[in-house]
Amino acid sequence: MEFSEDTMTILRNFSGINQNIIIKQGNVLKTVSEAKNILASATISEEIPQDFGIYDLSEFIGVLSLVDTPNLNFETKDYVMISDSSGRSKIKYFFSSEDTLTTPSKDITMPECEVKFQLDNDVLNKLKKACSTLGHNEVSITNENNIIKLSVVDPQNSTSNVFSIDVDGEYPEGSTFNFMLNINNLKIIPGNYDVEISSKLISQFSNPESNVKYWIAVEKSSTFSS
């Protein structure tokens, strides 16, 4: 079997969330950060024939790049044979014991979400650039004048510079909120996302174009009142 470029993009992204992964039989890839504050799931076009563990996902991706058009042949439960298009170059890559790896223990069932908005790739890039330029790590999500506002802030300094941008969305009438997200936790594939946030301090980022979802913890300093 061969991994499509879309699948490779997902694997590269997942390696930034957690360096190890357990790939399950089927067509769904999942990973969770060591701190358990980021969980991601993606549906891929390939059908994985068996479960296997990868201790260093970045290394595995690098190994695939050693040959052109890598073809994966799952010969045993201990290793995969990776060959090039001619079949002359081969790599015997051994799997890791699943006991030593981090894997999601269960799926997340999202609680009722009070705030929903659209986050397009342009806005996401502006937020990341603003965080880098201003030296802030926090994104504040509030409602001001009946508009959802995303602001790059330093919550520890009320006189620090602030970048903000308005987005389209919805929330309960009369509610006030200030949900805080750490920009370092937004380890998501570039694209357009439907974002949902619950007062239970969990957010969901859904990208329908790439069939990938992320569940990212909201900072404990967040507030919501209806």
Helix-strand blueprint:
Blueprint: H1 5-15, E1 21-23, E2 26-32, E3 38-48, E4 52-54, H2 57-64, E5 71-73, E6 79-83, E7 90-94, E8 115-119, H3 121-134, E9 138-144, E10 147-153, E11 163-167, E12 169-170, E13 176-182, E14 193-198, E15 202-207, E16 212-217, E17 223-225
Antiparallel strand pairs: 1-4, 2-3, 3-16, 5-6, 6-7, 8-12, 8-14, 9-10, 9-13, 10-11, 13-17, 14-15, 15-16
**CATH hierarchy class name of the largest domain:** Alpha Beta
Figure out the total of helices: 3
Label the overall shape.
Answer: elongated
Rounded radius of gyration (Å)? 20 Å
The CATH topology name of the largest domain reads Proliferating Cell Nuclear Antigen
Mean pLDDT: 95
Largest sheet: 7 strands, antiparallel
What does this structure look like?
- This protein has 226 residues and is mainly beta.
- The protein contains three helices and 17 strands.
- The longest helix has 14 residues, at 121-134.
- The model has no long low-confidence stretch (mean pLDDT 95).
Concise synopsis of the structure shown:
The protein is mainly beta. The protein folds into two domains: 5-100, Proliferating Cell Nuclear Antigen, CATH 3.70.10.10; 115-225, Box (Proliferating Cell Nuclear Antigen), CATH 3.70.10. The protein is 15% helix and 40% strand.
Q: Which features does this protein show?
A:
226 residues; Proliferating Cell Nuclear Antigen; 2 domains; five-stranded antiparallel sheet; 17 strands
